[in-house]
Design goal:
- The chain is an alpha+beta fold.
- It has two domains: 177 residues, Jelly Rolls (Sandwich); 93 residues, Orthogonal Bundle (Arc Repressor Mutant, subunit A).
- It has 13 helices and twelve strands.
- A five-stranded antiparallel beta sheet has the order 2-11-5-8-12. Strands 1-4-9 form a three-stranded mixed beta sheet.
- The longest helix is centred in the middle third of the chain and has 26 residues.
- It is elongated.
- This is Helix-turn-helix protein.
- InterPro entries: Homeodomain-like_sf, HTH_AraC, HTH_AraC-typ_CS, Tscrpt_reg_AraC-type_HTH.
- Pfam families: HTH_18.
């Protein structure tokens, strides 16, 4: 496999794209200034946000084409890799906002950057912008770019970081909108999640794998764990973990009525390593132990 090109510094990425470095820790990169190049795997050691000026119908989301055509935002956290090697040239397009973790250390954004879970979404879970949303994003980028072109003074860092935070807050709002407007797609995922759990507990997987994890379910549904978790939370009001635990309790309630099985046997059949963990979860959710529930019904 072709080795990925790695960018540790903002200046390295700027040079790669024929872009002047105005600040060592942050840049707004106009990708159309880069020379045509072959497709390569690229690794970024800083936060990277791409605004792709393409028709989203040319890309695919699972088995469905994107339904927004005005632009797409893709988010990468430090250490992520994007792309694949192809022996064909292409002209990069769009804009990239890149900023190093050192830029936000000690700031309010630095303390809450982990809350922006979309930095761990897969590329296929991109944010599709409406025309009005794209204008807001472009306005944020323009303000950041203005500060980069302005002579550095005591206000520069605060204003740059504040505008990045504003940018990310808008993205959070737009993702909330996307979860709502893509309700049909999301409902389909929720139904598949339910079917996945049903088939899981009807199979031998609890014996061989154990309890189903959020990461396992997300992988089976071809979603990143963070996107999957956020989607389930928006759709049901519960975390994916809570949803799984509710399913475990539903299955357990039926199994408890089989008086030929001990509580320990039921726990192992469900995928618990230790029966006491099953009993504790059952009591927390139902208000009584499995044996008490069995006796009361």
């Amino acid at each position: 496999m072709e080795e990925a090109i790695s960018f540790a510094k903002i200046s390295e990425y700027n040079t790669f794209n024929n872009q002047e470095t105005l600040h060592p820790l942050v840049s707004v990169v106009h990708l159309d200034r880069a020379e045509p190049r072959v497709h390569r795997r690229l690794r970024y050691e800083f936060y990277t946000i791409f605004l792709k000026q393409i028709k989203c119908g040319d890309l695919r989301y699972g088995l469905n084409n994107y339904d927004y055509e005005e632009g797409t935002l893709i988010f990468l956290g430090p250490g992520q890799v994007i792309g694949e090697y192809k022996e064909e040239y292409y002209q990069p397009q769009g804009i990239a906002l890149v900023f190093h973790p050192d830029l936000i250390h000690g700031t309010t954004l630095g303390k809450k950057i982990h809350e922006y879970s979309f930095f761990s979404y897969a590329v296929s879970e991109a944010l599709h912008l409406s025309e009005q949303e794209r204008k807001i994003i472009m306005d944020c980028l323009s303000k950041i770019e203005y500060e980069l072109q302005h002579a550095i003074d005591k206000h520069s860092k605060q204003l740059i970081v504040s505008n990045i935070e504003l940018f990310l807050n808008y993205c959070e709002r737009f993702y909330d909108r996307q979860f709502i407007t893509r309700d049909t797609v999301n409902k389909g995922i929720l139904e598949r999640f339910e079917e996945l759990l049903n088939s899981y507990f009807e199979s031998e997987k609890p014996y061989s794998i154990g309890l189903p994890s959020v990461a396992y379910c997300a992988g089976e549904l071809h979603l990143s764990a963070n996107y999957f978790g956020d989607l389930i939370k928006k759709e049901t009001g519960k975390s994916a973990q809570e949803y799984i635990q509710n399913k475990i309790i539903d299955v357990a309630k039926n199994m408890v009525f089989d008086r030929n099985k001990s509580v320990s046997e039921i726990a192992y059949e469900l995928g618990f390593k230790y029966p006491q963990h099953f009993s504790r979860l059952f009591k927390n959710r139902v208000g009584m132990t499995p044996n008490e529930y069995r006796s009361a019904n």
